Amino acid sequence: MTLLETYVFRNSGKILAYALLISLSIFVLFPLLFSLSQSFMTNQEVNRWPPPMIPTEPTLDSYRQLFTQPDLKLPIWLRNSLFAAAAYTTAVIVICAPAAYAFARLRFPGNNLLFGLLLLTIMIPGQVTLIPNFLLMRDLKFLDTFHALIWPGAANVFGVFLLRQFFMQIPRELEEAAVLDGASYWGRFRHVILPLSTNALTALGIFVFLAHYNDLLWPFVVTNSLEMRTLPVGLQVLNSSYAGQYRPLVLAGAVFATVPIVVVYIIFQRRIIKGVALTGMGGR
């Protein structure tokens, strides 16, 4: 057996794993790269069959039209999406973290029963509560405002569950030491639990932010004016208006919407991976 054959035999598992990961990466990246490539093509080139993979004469016409069309306000829609997602994420963390700590550490009658009932609400489809939430927003005069994009769903059951599981991993001895120093429940939560939970809080914040940033249905229902649309709603309008006549414009809009998500992942990729690994552990 040659040296190469010996190496392949001993590392066959790694080679297969890397081959599988490379194949999956190509499968995931191909649509994104193809959309990026076609956004630099002319309309005639995009509609050619078979479609070319690389533009013969790259052009920025679709991007110019994207920011000059009077019915397309992508910078405003991007601002709305970022602001609404950031505010919603902040509200989720502020509300869910104390609730998760109460379920993880406080002992009161019906603790587990109440937590189980809370988890049951995860199984209720969002479409079931869509009309009641809409009527509530209407009665509160929140329609077509940021309030309608931020407050519904801020008491996030998944966030409570995720943080509770993480808080239960923190040794109680650390809190007992704080109790000896005279710390209250709030003091223990603020000075012991929160500093040790930055990875879980960051992971939850990123997941919630991206989910809200990509949400289409609820913003589509509660926003009416052009200036209050979020980016996913704007892209849907862009697709319905221009997909048939100028597809590179739609692809340019899709690329524009993807950039913030890619930037967020590049910045927080270590936090995301570490947070997923930590919050994926079961509670005691």
Identify the notable features of this structure and list them briefly:
284 residues; mainly alpha; MetI-like fold; 15 helices
How does this structure look, described?
The chain is mainly α and 284 residues long. The protein folds into two domains: 3-64, no CATH class; 69-279, MetI-like (MetI-like fold), CATH 1.10.3720. Helix content is 71%, strand content 0%. It has 15 helices and no strands. The protein has helices at 3-10, 12-38, 43-46, 61-68, 74-105, 111-120, 130-139, 146-150, 157-167, 172-180, 185-196, 198-213, 217-222, 231-242, 247-279. It is flat, with a radius of gyration of 24 Å. It starts with a helix and ends in a 5-residue tail after the last helix. The mean pLDDT is 86.
Brief write-up:
This protein is mainly alpha-helical.
What topology emerges from the helices and strands here?
Layout: H1 3-10, H2 12-38, H3 43-46, H4 61-68, H5 74-105, H6 111-120, H7 130-139, H8 146-150, H9 157-167, H10 172-180, H11 185-196, H12 198-213, H13 217-222, H14 231-242, H15 247-279
Tell me the total number of β-strands: 0
Radius of gyration: 24 Å
Low-confidence stretches: none
Shape: flat
Average pLDDT, all residues: 86
Sequence of secondary-structure elements: HHHHHHHHHHHHHHH
Indicate the CATH class of the largest domain: Mainly Alpha
- The secondary-structure class comes to mainly alpha
How much of the sequence lies in strands comes to under 5%
Looking at CATH, which topology of the largest domain would you report? MetI-like fold
Amino- and carboxy-terminal Cα gap = 50 Å
User: Total number of helical segments?
Assistant: 15
**CATH-derived architecture of the largest domain:** Orthogonal Bundle
Main sheet summary: none
Helix content: over 70%
Number of domains: 2
For CATH, the homologous superfamily of the largest domain is named as MetI-like
